[in-house]
Amino acid sequence: MKHSRAKRPDIRNPIRSPGPELAGLTRRALLQRAFAAGALTVVGAGFIAAPNAAWALEVTTIKPEQMAALVQMARDIYPHDRIADAFYAVAVKGYDSADQKALVDEGVAALNAAAQAQGHADYVSIGWEEDRVKVLQAIETTPFFQTVRAGLVTGLYNQKDIWPLFGYEGESFSQGGYIERGFDDIDWL
Amino acid sequence: MVAKFELSDDSVVVIIGTGAGGGVLANELAQKGVKVVALEAGGRYLPEDFINDEWDSFSQLAWLDARTTSGTWRVAKDFSGLPAWIVKAVGGTTTHWAGASIRFQDHEWKALTNYGKVEGANLLDWPIDGAEMAPWYDKAETKLGVTRTGDRPGLPGNNNYKVFEKGAQALGYKEVHTGRMAINSKEYDGRLACQQTGFCFQGCKWGAKWSAAYTDIPAGEATGNLEVRERSHVARILHDDSGKVTGVEYFDKDGNLQMQKARIVCVAGNSFESPRLLLNSHSSKFPNGLANGSGMVGKNYMRHTTGSVYAVFDKPVRMWRGTTMAGIVQDEARHDPSRGFVGGYELETLSLGLPFMAAFLNPGAWGRGFTTALDSYENMAGLWIVGEDMPQLQNGVTLSETKDQYGLPVANVHFDDHPNDIAMRNHAYAKGIAMYEAVGATRTFPTTPYPSTHNLGTNRMSEKPEDGVVNKWGQSHEIANLFVSDGSQFTTGAAENPTLTIVALAIRQADHIAREMSAGTI
Questions:
Q1: How far does A28 lie from chain B, in Å, by closest CA?
Q2: Per-residue pLDDT tens digits for B69-126
Q3: Chain A residue at shortest CA distance from B440
Q4: Sorted alphabetically, which PANTHER family does this protein's record hold (chain B) (predicted)?
């Protein structure tokens, strides 16, 4: 009857850890440089990192600031407080590619312009989710927003590592189904 | 010994499609000694190949060739290239179906007579009735091993069913049980009993659910009279100067165009591909497509008045565990116009896994209103509405400007709800919500219809040639050796899941075709 508990997310792959050639981007260095930052932090060329340095994401084509905006946007579109940023980063990392660059350049610029029109410096620096949502609503009908949102439906929710956070157990065939494992174990009716 | 027939063999019956209609017809004819070539656009997948992962399975099995959509139905906006969630594989959508196997009610065979004229609807009586179909339903239930028919017991209820049943009883519903299902409650026909694994929609890895892919198809092949050519996409049906069909052109697995001669052609590609093929087969003799003298090919598309109700409770349900659809309330299936609509609907248990719930709970929605629903996924129960929708002339399949990978115009599927459909859906939403609230639901979600799984009516059966496409045997009014053998021949949709009726019609049609072949009339 027991079902599996939430596992720690595996961020080894496809989020790449800094290699030895990237001196200054060790966990400790990231921690120091990201210190006191509230949100995702741009750390050095081509990297963004979580404030607690639990993960970092290298970008090669788009700018780290753009990736930071995409990660924040992903969370604001489908906010789940128990899902770590790393999963949102995985869901949008595909935008770091040559064929997505124009979409990202234009889209993030429009996102920041919408933020500025509402009196903010830019999108990522807005402190309250409710205020960021108002900015997103201003661009909701754009192909950029719709592309990012639609991509997240599979990009986020089809990551098997987040399923336990929702209680979802995935396949059961390998364990013989639920015929002896609680298909009818509801006890509160 | 699996048969192999020559392309030039004009004594064979060619069947296009191998699902509930074509797959069953192929086997039934083969059992009677009739030589059959079945052309299947998809590949062959068996239980060991099925994938218990929603998106991976979807990529493996779903028909993903291009289609286009139009009309006011929400599917055209949210899933514009995916009007239906049906299968491209040997066995067709019998790999994906949930297994619900219920007979039409007697009054539903005569919708026009019993409901009267409904403005904007194109209702018609079937040229057959419940008495005519009863023995064929008996055979279909035996073939499929339907629970609660014969001496087969019902399936046990899972968590989702228990919530559903308690809510239904609280509302005073009487016809509430775990369904008549083509899923074994005990071993049957050499197949295992249900192991309560879930993922019924992704192909049953135990083979406990009936699918033509691993029952009728291999049984037919074992006779030596059936050759199934998979990954063979039929482009057009050919005819001679007298107007008789003579064979089909198809693209084989390597993309080469082949021509198979035939004595009889049976179209069973579902309610999109069957009319599309007839329309794409137009010629100087039949400029509007084959079998289309009435102009009814592609018209009167029906998809059932569907929708779902999901509900969140303060404690876990884990609805995904066990059989996906073993639960039904039939009290609302009656025809009772005092409810504000004609016809009726069934309520059936349903669950989706988390990935599909994210895609289908409220397509396009975002923000906390949506995500807090998913946060409670473990505490969710769900049901599906299946009701009779109105045939309407303008709903249906036409040839699109878009071409497929073979350069053939694809099906454009147009659909607008009829006011009767909307009234019925709203009634069903209210009842579903009331059921769950009676069990303590803290939040409910009247969920929009998914891409269609019940696709019906685009080559409908009619007494008079001017009202439809085929006669009471599924035989084209216009071309004696051309048959339609799938759900597209439905005159009206009734409230019931259609597969059992498609299978019963296919068994009956096989009997007719074999008899007429013996008599030399076709």
A1: 34
A2: 999 999 999 999 999 999 999 999 999 999 999 999 999 999 999 999 999 999 999 9
A3: A189
A4: LONG-CHAIN-ALCOHOL OXIDASE
B89 touches B231 (CB < 8 A): no
Cβ–Cβ of B374/A172 closer than 8 Å?
no
Contacts of B56 in chain A (CB under 8 A): none
Cα separation of B285 and B248, whole Å? 16
A chain contacts of residue B321, beta-carbon cutoff 8 Å: 169, 172, 178, 181-183
**Residue A10 confidence (pLDDT) above 50:** no
pTM of structure: 0.93
Residue at token pair 């990529």: B59
Domain B150-208+305-387+417-448 has CATH 2.40.128: no
| Alpha helices per DSSP H over A6-164 | 27-34, 64-77, 85-92, 101-117, 129-138, 143-155
Rounded to 5 degrees, φ, ψ at A124 are -65, -30
Residue B281 identity: S
Rounded Cα distance, A89 and A161, in Å: 14
Going from the C-alpha of A102 to that of each of A107, A142, B109, the distances in angstroms are: 8, 14, 57
Residue A141, φ and ψ in degrees, nearest 5: -90, 0
What b/e readout covers B268-298, taking b as 16+ CB neighbours within 10 angstroms? bbbbbbbbbbbbbbeeeebeebbbbbbebbb
Best CA proximity match to A120, nearest among A107, A133, A101, A103: A133
* More confident of the two residues A38 and B5: B5
- Alpha carbons B62 and B96: distance in angstroms, whole number: 9
Tell me how many domains chain A contains: 1
Calpha distance B298→B313 (Å, rounded): 44
Residue A13 lies in a domain: no
ipTM of the complex: 0.95
Cβ(B271)–Cβ(B461) under 8 Å?
A: no
Helix (H) or strand (E) holding B383: strand B380-387
Domain ranges of chain B: 1-51+82-97+102-146+211-299+456-522, 150-208+305-387+417-448
Contact yes or no for B170/B438 (Cβ under 8 A): yes
Q: Which CATH number fits domain B1-51+82-97+102-146+211-299+456-522: 3.30.160.20, 3.50.50.60, 1.10.8.60, 3.40.50.720?
A: 3.50.50.60
Range of the domain at A133: 27-160
Contact B78, B363 (CB under 8 A): yes
